[in-house]
Design goal:
alpha/beta, D-Maltodextrin-Binding Protein, domain 2, Alpha-Beta Plaits, 6-stranded mixed β-sheet, 10 helices, 30% strand
Length: 309
């Protein structure tokens, strides 16, 4: 059950309630630790900001639905936090119900809107007459099925185990193999050491909304051979038409090409918020062109030093 404050022994929070995919990600990162289920992304990250938690695990991006706006907005606004790790969880959905319920008896089906979007085709084919009711999480939907509020829920198999529900159908996602990316967030500090397979996440606030402003931002990465895996605009919350850009770049702050790109952004943007350099969950190393590698930067710096005498 989600509580208002983390237990004294808990140092890692996650978006609750228990039985969510976020809990799976948190246990993947910290299998032996006591965890605290936060009632919302905002509550989890605020507990980190206030020092009541050492870190929190929250959803960041889904391979089908895209970025999680609640998490992005919390990281864009408020006191700065820092991503220290990530985890990938393959999303598997089941239709869960109380014992004795058949698929034909399902009239009210509860789930999270993201899960509803990822299972719309299956539901339309197998439960065309069912009313799909949005809930705050798939785990909460399962809990309310156990309490008799709904006939069935679309949720993670873990939620069925937690609430002693039976699976009427398994693997009901329209696109099998969908993956959700979760991030572990803590207070600002030195990033983890580079591994060679890293991501740097940041927020860039352009100085003035004018033609070419976005191109100028992108050139800071392009001319230094830094690949971007995610770029999207988010409202700053200050006034209509004011946007910032959240960015995932391949590489680590310790690499000269990434550090120089951030230096360029710092000069040309109104503000740059560093959200962390951390290991990729898949461990995939992306090759770097020779002219963008550390050896090339070192040689170029020596050349300039020699010119200066």
């Amino acid at each position: 059950m989600t509580t208002a404050e983390p237990a004294g022994a808990a140092v890692t929070g996650y978006l609750g309630p228990a039985g969510t995919f976020t809990e799976q990600a948190a246990r993947q990162l910290h299998p032996e630790e006591e965890l605290w289920p936060a009632p919302s992304v905002a509550a989890a990250l605020e507990a980190v900001r206030a020092g009541r938690l050492e870190r929190a695990v929250v959803p960041f991006e889904n391979s089908v639905e895209g970025s999680v706006s609640a998490t992005l907005d919390e990281l864009v606004r408020g006191d700065r936090l820092q991503i220290r790790a990530e985890a990938h969880v393959e999303v598997e959905f089941s239709v869960l119900a109380r014992a004795g319920t058949s698929l034909g008896q399902v009239r009210r089906l509860a789930t999270h809107p993201h899960a509803a979007a990822q299972t719309r085709g299956w539901v339309g084919t197998h439960l065309p007459a069912a009313e799909v009711v949005p809930e705050s999480s798939t785990a909460r939907a399962a809990a309310l099925v156990a309490a008799g509020v709904y006939d069935a829920a679309i949720a993670a198999p873990l939620a069925g185990d937690r609430h002693r529900l039976e699976a009427l159908a398994e693997q009901v996602a329209d696109r099998p193999g969908a993956v959700t990316r979760f991030v572990e967030v803590g207070r600002p500090g030195p990033p983890p050491a580079p591994t060679g397979a890293d991501t740097t996440t940041l927020v860039a606030y352009i100085r003035q909304n004018r033609p070419g402003a976005l191109l100028e931002l992108l050139e800071q990465f392009a001319v230094r051979g830094v690949d971007l895996t995610r770029l999207e605009s988010r409202p700053t919350g200050e006034e209509l038409g004011q946007y910032c850009f959240t960015i995932d770049a391949v590489g680590h702050l310790a690499e000269p090409r990434v550090a120089e790109a951030l230096t360029g952004l710092r000069r040309t943007c109104a503000e740059v918020r560093f959200l962390g350099s951390y290991p990729r969950a898949d461990g995939r190393v992306q090759p770097v062109d020779p002219e963008a590698g550390e050896e090339a930067y070192t040689e170029a710096q020596r050349w300039v030093a020699a010119l200066r005498g």
